[in-house]
Amino acid sequence: MSKTEKKPLLQVENLSIGFSQYMKGTQKRVIQPIADMNVEINEGEIVAVVGASGSGKSLLAHAVLGILPSNAICSGSVVYKGEELTEKRKRQLRGREISFIPQSVNYLDPLMRVGAQVQIGLDKKTAHKQQEKLFAQYDLKSSDGHLFPYELSGGMLRRVLFATSVREGVRLVIADEPTPGIHPEALSEILKQLKQFAKDGAGVMLITHDMMSALQIADRVAVIKEGATVEISEAVAFQGTGERLKTEYTKRLWRALPQNDFDLEFKGRDLNI
Ligand SMILES: Nc1ncnc2c1ncn2[C@@H]1O[C@H](COP(=O)(O)OP(=O)(O)OP(=O)(O)O)[C@@H](O)[C@H]1O
Ligand SMILES: [Mg+2]
Predict the structure, then answer these.
(1) For residue range 91-106, what is the model confidence (pLDDT) as tens digits?
(2) 77 located within any domain
């Protein structure tokens, strides 16, 4: 890379994640779900991360955010704005410059009204107004703000989670499956918002099983298989018979989509796409 070339906003290199687990008695073993993960995201760019269930997409997100469980053994490098992301820096940036939309709605506090949860991190003076605006934007009623998470449907909770991520000053958005169970109107609002984050100059990591929706907004797509990045390609390569894709795995993944010739031989059909 020449000196004048812009550095990526986020650069994940040779990321490995293992977990030490106790077997019977006191014997310990280490499992290694992530072996060689590489992803980079530039400012203003949306990178979709796709791969079968269990391939390590959420672990990648959690490693960048610094929220892996304590028995995780992590190596490799995560560089943000040209500087190594230490655990301390991750803590400082999380929920501020680095915004996270988690895969599970269990990240919401079950004992706190959802309106109040969306107000966390907003300027106190205008928090209520901003929350109401976000609710309207994501097709939630003003009165929904008084409800607790258990009183909302799964799709509504996803929209609440998304609303918690929309903050001024966000530079990197990590969205882990933000769209399942969401009706088409709210889905297009979420895609629009992710696109807006990028237009405002933020980098977006969009983890998803919904490749067709992701391709509407993604600039590049990273394909993950069994804890390793197998391919990173421009989103425009995902068209036709996939002849511009680099690996056989990604070609087959692409052709396995119902919209394409639906290659039923493909072993990754548990992708739910
Ligand atoms: N705390 C943990 N201890 C041990 N193994 C774990 C732990 N968390 C995740 N794993 C394993 O790591 C692998 C990757 O998990 P991960 O949740 O990242 O998958 P994913 O790609 O996000 O899947 P999905 O699409 O279903 O969300 C899985 O095999 C999972 O069982
Ligand atoms: Mg996941």
Answers:
(1) 999 988 999 999 888 8
(2) yes
